[in-house]
Amino acid sequence: QVIKCKAAVLWELNTPFSVEEVEVAPPKANEVRIKIVATGICRSDDHVINGKIVAPLPMVLGHEAAGIVESVGEGVTTVKPGTEFTLRGCALVHDLKQTRPGTLRSLGTFQQLLLSPFLHFLNTQVTQGSTCAVFGLGGVGLSVVMGCKAAGAARIIAVDVNKGKFAKAKELGATECINPQDYEKPIHEVIMEMTDGGVDFSFEVIGRLDTLMAALLCCHVACGTSVVVGVPPDSQTLSMNPLMLLTGRTWKGGIFGGFKSKESVPKLVADFMAKKFSLDALITNVLPFEKINEGFDLLR
């Protein structure tokens, strides 16, 4: 049956969300309908609000959430109503133009109930004893630091222009923290010198073209891997010399950390419940759904 619930709808650029009632359709084949328990606020959502990422409006945003399966569509056999569920991925948004009037088929997590297909991703593995560089120390960047530590990285170099983030980064596993503004030479050259030739793995978790290139260039020329995590603004392209890859570097994307969600997320939850790591440092504020606009003010 169709269910009514609240959703935060973005009707126009650079305006607050409108919290209003929408109708959510029942799940079709290979879909699940999920009751959202909590959702995170991400800079990618703000890029849509201010127009840096072009998307059709109106829209329900949001892509980092945990919830409980309410109902399942035909063909879904691996979860059932009552199963706990997580959603992650910056592509999880959907415009409302084709659903008004009528029922909503939306993947945005800024609503109390949503529909989702199953998503799967390949894995990116940091090796034991490796050297890593993490560009950007927001919530996702700090999570990358934690992941590198959990994987057994020997050195984790955290890079950010905000020195106020360094203490938390070190608390979560960073071995060194550097600010590009403290150096006269490009930051990739600084890291190359620090690591005697470059890091094994770098992660760009900002979404800027200059830091994407710096993250690639700080990798070892013969065997380094640079992972793109940050979401750059729409309509921007990066010009690069193929020689940067010819000698052996790898450049790849890593949305969702490269995890296959259905298999990997339950293991993460089990590890968290076993106190193998803490997420407390990543949570800065907790707000009720109706204060979503206040949440974005805090983000900015």
CATH evolutionary superfamily of the largest domain: Medium-chain alcohol dehydrogenases, catalytic domain
CATH class of the largest domain, named Alpha Beta
SS element count, helices: 8
H/E topology pattern: EEEHEEEEEEHEHEHEHEHEHH
Known CATH architecture of the largest domain: Alpha-Beta Complex
Q: In which range does the helix fraction lie?
A: 10-25%
**Rg over alpha carbons:** 20 Å
* Backbone shape: globular
- Span of the ends, CA to CA: 39 Å
Point out poorly predicted stretches: 97-102
Number of self-contained structural domains: 2
Number of strands: 14
Q: Would you kindly provide a written description of the structure presented here, covering whatever features stand out?
A:
The protein has 300 residues and is of the alpha/beta class. The chain folds into two domains: 3-121 and 260-299, Quinone Oxidoreductase, Chain A, domain 1 (Alpha-Beta Complex); 131-258, Rossmann fold, CATH 3.40.50. The protein is built from eight helices and 14 strands. It has helices at 43-49, 139-150, 166-171, 187-194, 209-217, 243-246, 261-273, 292-299, and strands spanning 3-10, 18-24, 32-39, 59-60, 64-72, 84-88, 94-95, 113-116, 131-135, 155-159, 176-178, 201-204, 225-228, 250-253. The strands form three sheets. The chain has a six-stranded parallel sheet, with helices on both faces. The longest helix has 13 residues, at 261-273. It is globular and about 60 Å long. The relative contact order is 0.14. Mean pLDDT is 87; it is low at 97-102. Residues 139-272 form the Alcohol dehydrogenase-like C-terminal domain. It is an enzyme of class 1 (oxidoreductase). It comes from Propithecus coquereli (Coquerel's sifaka). It catalyses: a primary alcohol + NAD(+) = an aldehyde + NADH + H(+).
